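Follow-up to my earlier ticket, as requested here are the two runs.
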Amino acid sequence: MSARSLYEPQLTKIERVERETPDTHTFFLNAEGIEWRGAWKPGQFVELSVFGAGEAPFCLAQSPTRPDFIEVTVRRTGAVTNRLHTYGPGDVVGLRGPYGNCFPFERARGKDLIFVGGGIGLPPLRSLINYVLDHRSDYGAVHVLYGARTPSDRVYKNELAAWAKSDRLTLRETVDKADDTWTGPVGVVTNLLQGMAVDEGNTVAFTCGPPIMLKFVVAELMALKIPDRNIVTTLERYMKCGVGKCGHCCIGHKYVCTDGPVYNFEQIRYLPER
């Protein structure tokens, strides 16, 4: 990759927008002409430019085995995302990437998998879940545990409904606060891990969500005696440049944009907590 292409975004049009929650949309971007179409790896991210507002990092929310669109799921939190949420089909954005490392899907072959997602933490996990489903014979049992604040805050509702009916994985969901439509468990997502029967030496757990959630999820996974190396998470930082130059995402001696954003717990156990 040349120095010019390192910082120059490729232009693409928004093809479709799906409303996931009151403050979260999934943007389906035209993949034609994108040099790395279908060549990214689950867990990687892109820098997305909203011209006139800025640039921000977002995970690639779909498996590279499903490359019809470049999908990013975005919660409205600031200037860039607020502007993006006003965009619709035909509007143009810029993409740089893909950047970062990936989930260790090769090392996880033949093992049982546990996915634990919280709220907007499901999109990066979804990229790997769908990759696993598209290579289903390569993996053992697959368990997806998902928690959200309320039923309306759940992303990918149609896909969750399909997973719930599938015999290729087990889905369990919970919400912090129920409404009249909710008939499932109520409580934090860590409750779904308590007492779970696992083959600790043959299980890899992947988790993504708010930092406070990750702290307690990792503790529960350790209580299940899953080895540190097999507890895999992402670190949430503002990866401003995406290529290890600005230092904005530095935690201790780790540059999250290049060393990560995916780490196993063995790698990050002694990083500064902040």
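Run two:
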Amino acid sequence: IASFVEDPAERQRLDEAFGELADTRGLVVDLRGNSGGNLGLAMRLGDRLFSTQTRVGSFATRRALAVAGVAAMDALPDDAFETFGGYEVDAFEEALTHAGAVRIVTGGRAPTYEAAVALLVDNGCASTTEAMAAVIKESGRARLFGAATAGRMLSSRRLTVMDGYTLRIAYADFRTPGGLDVEGVGVPPDQVAGDGDAAVRAATSWLRSQR
């Protein structure tokens, strides 16, 4: 998956691919070099990997912290969060603007791939891709192979400034369900593997051991 693009047609392509792969005994998902993108395709991947609705991360803005009277996202009470399970990034942005804090859920909406899954990651993985990798690793749904991700997770907006420059401002923090902060840290693989075919060989070797 080269990019998590915001396109219903790409979600359809993902569904078709999983339909073709349904009877296989192991799957390698290659996310190397995927610098992120929007929500929809990542959510659909979650639907295919998780058989029941699963919380896959939380976002919060400074507005949510101010309303709750706390200094950090980790101190927000449960009732500060709105639940979001859609595919459209505009709907997510609206929910985040309205509530200031949102919990993302996916899974249980499509036939689930039941066999073992290996995820290939590297330092080109960022943003949405890092969130997906972190949650899948934390849940134990897949094993990660390759190199640590970039540690560039936070949602940001681009502002135009003088002389043709632009400035990106982070506007929402993120945590995995287990409370992991990915920003500036990245997601380490379960097994470090070299570039190219080395990571594929490591992943397929592990998959064979799971049969």
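The only thing I checked on run two: The beta strands are 27-30, 54-60, 82-84, 101-106, 117-121, 143-146, 155-160, 166-175, 191-192. Let me know what else you need.
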